[in-house]
Amino acid sequence: MSFPEGFLWGGATAANQYEGGYLSGGKGLATADVITAGSKDEARKISIELEDGTRKSINRFEDVPKGAKAYVDPDIYYPSHVATDFYNHYKQDIKLMAEMGFKCFRMSINWSRIYPNGDDKLPNEEGLKFYDNVFDELLKYGIEPVVTINHFDLPLNLAIKYEGWLNRETIDFFERFCDTIFTRYKDKVKYWMTFNEINFLRDYTTLGITEASNLQRQQQAIYHVLLASAKAVILGHKINPDFKIGLMVANILFYPETCNPNDSIKTMEVDRMFKDFYLDVQARGYYPSYKLKELERLNINLVKEEGDEELLRKGVVDYIAFSYYNSAVISTKESKEKSAGNQLGGVKNPYLEESEWGWPIDPQGIRLVLNRLYDKYQKPLMIVENGLGAIDTIDENGEINDDYRIDYLKKHIIEIKKAIEYDGVDLMGYTPWGCIDLVSAGTGEMKKRYGFVYVDMDDKGNGTLKRLKKKSFYWYKRVIESNGECLD
């Protein structure tokens, strides 16, 4: 058997894309609640108010000017507000997960549901009770919660009042949040991750900072995030030594386009900038020399406090979690045709097919990623996102035959098996992304679906929210029942 006994088969979601109930039960506004829908061809936007009172929408990745603040426009559709309504469907959805045989369910806790303003002195009991109910329902079916503490959201008040992660006080607010949930759920949750795709934290909605393209401000904010992650690991282990607390990065495999040494040098530089730095700090406990040299060249001086270095050393993670959807090709030729893929593209790879959204499909790449991570860090790994975003249609028989999704996942699982069986990689679990349809983070669409369960909702938020099992639902059930041996 390739997959070890007790392997954590499951699925993954995020509160801001799946939970909904954006003001229910005392929840406060989060930065995710001001992001509009978009599409493959139209960028998502955020609603901002300038210091002179002017209101407008700007591209999500544009700089928010200093002094501006985000707000909710009642005339605009924001997908996070309802998402696919796990808030009111959690019992039904968890029952479907149990039917598939899930051993675990990766989800996130919405910070502003526990601390509506982020800087509140006391937590919101109604929000805490909601997650109590969710965890109890999961454990009733023998499903382990795998909890991301912060998944692309931040109490909006922290962005407006404190400049988010640029302000060192936010570390203290995050530590208070972690203390609350670690203590409350210490007997219900064993597996935690500090920040989702920490290497994608770079704009107003994820870092809460204005003028985010200013590298001094951006790098200072990221430094604070890394300190907060280390503090969370130390605190969690103090509250419950049995906690397993991991990091989570977006892991895109980069290939040099040619054997030209310049392509290989550029690939190394992209790897370091995009993900290696974040892995090195959280898994090894210090800023690597190449990052220090980069900051020196850019004339960036991080504001530090005594004890920070020791904090990073002590706060190394127990395991490494990552998303993997695609690979990318790095070239020194700027004129090459570009490809897409999880917020970071490359040049076209002639050896690979692409999804409807232009993401290269590279199953063998996941084996390479697993080996590189395990060889370098020698820590247990977990694949917490992997999947195919596609347009699903209901046929005349009321069925959803998503064979393309089955084919994608099957080919990736085959390569994962090789990494375990032939290469000796220590892999804890596999949780495909969007196991029940949710809103796409990148485009804000519903038609870009990932799940084994279809949710009746369209790109404008219209629909009954009815759940329908896709063909992949029954396929994945067989995969789990056979512990990964039956893939047909």
Structure description:
This protein has 488 residues and is α/β, with parallel strands linked by helices. The protein has a single domain (8-25, 79-481), classed as TIM Barrel, CATH 3.20.20. Helices cover 36% and strands 15% of the residues. The protein contains 14 helices and 17 strands. The protein has helices at 15-18, 86-100, 111-114, 125-140, 156-162, 169-184, 204-207, 215-239, 261-284, 289-297, 308-314, 363-377, 403-421, 471-481; strands spanning 8-12, 45-49, 55-59, 69-70, 104-108, 144-150, 191-195, 244-250, 253-256, 319-323, 327-330, 353-354, 360-361, 381-385, 427-430, 453-455, 467-469. The mean pLDDT is 96.
Going by helix content, strand content and strand pairing, the class is alpha/beta
User: Spans with pLDDT under 50 lasting ≥5 residues?
Assistant: none
- Characterize the main sheet: 8 strands, parallel, barrel
Give average pLDDT, whole number. 96
The number of helical segments is: 14
Question: Number of DSSP strands?
Answer: 17
